[in-house]
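Hi there. Long-time user, first ticket. I'm pasting a complex I've been working with (about 924 residues overall). I'd like to know whether the download I got is complete or cut off, because the file seemed smaller than I expected. Thanks.
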Amino acid sequence: MLDTLRSDFRSLAPAVDFCALRFVEESSEYLAVRQDVPEPPQLSTSRGAMVTVIDGGGLGYAATSDLSKAGLARAIDRARDYARLTAGKSVVDYGTMRMPRPAGAYRSPVARDPASLSRADKYELLAAEAKQCRIDDRIVDWEANLWTTASRQAYFTADGGDVRQEFHFVVPNLSATAYAKGESQTRSHAGRYNGFCRQGGLEILDAFGLEGAGREVAQAALELLAAPNCPSGTMDVLLMPDQMMLQIHESIGHPLELDRILGDERNFAGTSFVTLDMFGTYRYGSELLDVTHDPTRAGQYASYGWDDDGLAAEKVHVIRDGILQRPLGGAISQKRAGIDGVANTRACSWNRAPIDRMANLNVEPGTSTLDELVAAIGHGVMMRTNVSWSIDDSRNKFQFGCEWGRMIRDGKLAEVVKNPNYRGISATFWRSLCGVGDASTFEVMGTPYCGKGEPSQVIRVGHASPACRFSNVDVFGGAA
Amino acid sequence: MSDMRGYFEDVASHLQSLARAGEVLISRLCAEESDFIRFNRSRVRQATAVRQAAWTVSLIRGAKRLDARVSVAGSLAADKPALAALVAELRDSLDGVPDDPFLLYETAPATSTAKPREARLPRPAQVIDEVLAAGRGLDLVGFHAAGPIWKGFASSLGVRHWHAVESFDLGWCLYHDRDKAVKTSYAGSTWDSAAFQSKMGFAREQLARLAGSPRTLEPGEYRAYLAPAAMTELLGMMSWAGFGLKSLNTKQSALIRMADRGARLSPLVTIAENTAEGIACGFQAEGFARPDRVPLVEAGELASPLVSPRSAREYGVATNGANAGETPESLDLAPGTLAESEALAALDTGIYVGNLWYLNFSDRSACRLTGMTRFASFWVEGGKIRAPVNVMRFDDTAYRLLGASLEGLTRERDLVPDTNTYGERSTESVRTPGGLLSAFALTL
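Hi, the file is complete. Here it is re-exported in full:
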């Protein structure tokens, strides 16, 4: 089918400066067992293609779910119309772009094919663990679910480029909610809002640790219900990887996106406190901070071989020893800004044009064990599992909350606390990084739900991180 | 996709013919032809045409149900055989699906057709030329989305619903500097260049107000007036699993203290799902028609929850046509008595909040919210705008913001269409007045 599509496209491609076709076929299955009741499976297949045309300095895109030759011809005409319409009226002369002509293939590493387990067996697996959540009448809701997706993508340029990529995603989830006296507490296993998400096969369920997790989350929810609120004050925080992922995402990833810095997103997602003159010199964080953009990491959620403009993926430091190195911007943004970036022009699907998106954005491991990080804290709180996130449109003033907290006093872990929150300012927060965990504390997380762009796009991103310690943070708890 | 109604009826009949004895086939069509044009710095950034169609087909036999959503070409020749093959695949898999004790779908034959509004959409070339001309010499960034949207529901039991709209939505900001901007929108079904120019002229006047030195506020409590766009954000948070029966019964609703502990909002607050006056379609995914109005909060007290068919079966109550997530699609906050023209005078000294941004819960059970001010927000003294304010974080409970602190709501209301285009263009909206608050707690 892809060869036919390529052949049809190339036979139709007009005489323009640049023309490409991006095909996406994504099939997913979502299975859930809630309160011991299996919910009907939700299956979906989204299939279509987007044409890109650059001509006369203008740029046009057209997407269609009609993949017949006539459908492709219509899309090519629409994209060419838009290129003509925007020539001389665009933010840049797109005719000056030298778009890549990539060739090659990428495939997610899959050890155990999700299809090797029947749907009934998957339900049984989820039901068995969900049942373990029922340990107390105060557990008022519980759910286990499994979301598997296979995505086949192709990128053809009229001048011979040909890339095939095949992605396999597995996203398990398990949570329980406890309730008493007007207050509920939810504890989820290995990341809320599908924070545990990876490329691969059913081996990901082993990494997730599904077995035994049901009773564990239910007990933790009850523990939170009985716990005191996190105290308020200035103290150290020890952020575990399932909170670090959000901290990285919001206050490093988004502010470094080059299209935000160039102003494209100011009508919706916002701008950035980062400016072009900062790259190469600006102290973003303490010298312990090393951040890489790495779409090549095997099995991480947003790995790929090429971005959606055909730029080859590579691992790149965006922050080294705390100094800002380069932005997260793909070929077009790099040209507009006159600065090196990364291969991260991505679209959420065939029906949206690609824009600058972080892929796998990771904090590199340091040298401290978890015990050493805890021992270094006189008064502070360990936080796990993001539950709340809010940040200004320049990605500077933030406030984040977690599911679970645990006080640290005199270098020792103490009582569990509920509703731990903290707030700060990106431009200074990372400079308070005073401890970075070693590889034993490192976990690979991500999110399926990064929203941005006009028209709106939700895309997959990956974030891996060790546990990290920050000093003098404004911490507070819940309640009115 | 010129005759989508005809296409829908043809495919729906075809699907109906595929149902075997003992089977029910439910199908839903979502299709659109959209033009998306992005602007930055008064130039075009990206222009995209999208033509898409997808059917969701549910095969039901007894208590078993299997759903699949598939993209289709939008042509009878291609889609009839493709959907027939899909039904065959679902049939082959249905035996392996567990029984669903909460299965509920419309079984009574019914038909509805939303009255189409006359539309005159602008051509993309016209939008580009008018926007670029209006933005000349200014830093304009914006987004235009336009085109027809079609939604249809059909079942083999004789239910047919059809909804078609043609609309445009142009939202743009005029930037003064950094994060200081005036946000404006122009939406509708018939483009009027004079109306666009008028909105642009008002935005230019507002932009001049941003030229003054910005004021940085200290954390603390301030009087505040929240413009309708800011109120929309507050209401959006309450809607996020706040009004649904499932979230209330599983104690995860942000309004759980209203349901279980007697908490209440101001008597000034009456909120409804107002399908009759919204722009969303009047039916939901299982074919149930939505009532014109579902009261959600009456004079500050929690009223009816939104009930999806699934929750209806699970909890033994009647559905009121809610979607699966039990979130409002046509939210309506009743007006108050404060004239909008008197709002600044009534505020006297405090903050005019044009927009709020990126709200989330600090403590969901307490409906405690946090978020940022955004765009054109001003310091007001003696009822006069004195200076733009730098962005500030608020952190407060809905019970205070829309409870004890709420002094009044404006007589005038804005219909704020949902501009989200995740996957497809939204037809949701919020209709809300502005709100005058005696206290608005800023924290950072």
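A couple of notes from our side: The mean pLDDT of chain A is 97. Chain A touches chain B through 86 residues (CB under 8 Å).
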